[in-house]
Specification:
alpha+beta, Alpha-Beta Plaits, 4 helices, 4-stranded antiparallel beta sheet
Length: 96
């Protein structure tokens, strides 16, 4: 499974209904699971992004599909980083 760090900002619509955000996260977790994506952890953040979450998926395409579905609801915009766990990081660096 590949790891992803998803940086999220609420849209104007999303912040107007921020009290519904926890329920939206629960709904997103269920949708993610059905699509083969696992939201490992979610964090409310202070700074340039409103939330950050760590997700796992077996393909970039699967994660992209999930994020497009979530974004189409109009409450969030995302920036995604593909992440490598420590074992993969060590292997990558060893090959340099």
């Amino acid at each position: 499974m590949a790891h992803y760090i998803v940086l999220m900002n609420w849209t104007e619509q999303g912040i107007k209904t921020v009290k519904d955000a926890p329920a939206r996260l629960d709904k997103a977790r269920k949708a993610a699971k059905k699509m083969g994506v696992k939201i490992e952890e979610a964090f409310l953040t202070i700074g340039a992004y409103d939330m950050v979450f760590h997700a796992e998926a077996d393909s970039d395409e699967r994660l992209a599909s999930f994020l497009l579905m979530q974004g189409s609801a109009g409450n969030i915009r995302t920036t995604t980083l593909k992440a490598f766990d420590e074992a993969a990081y060590r292997k990558i660096v060893k090959g340099v």
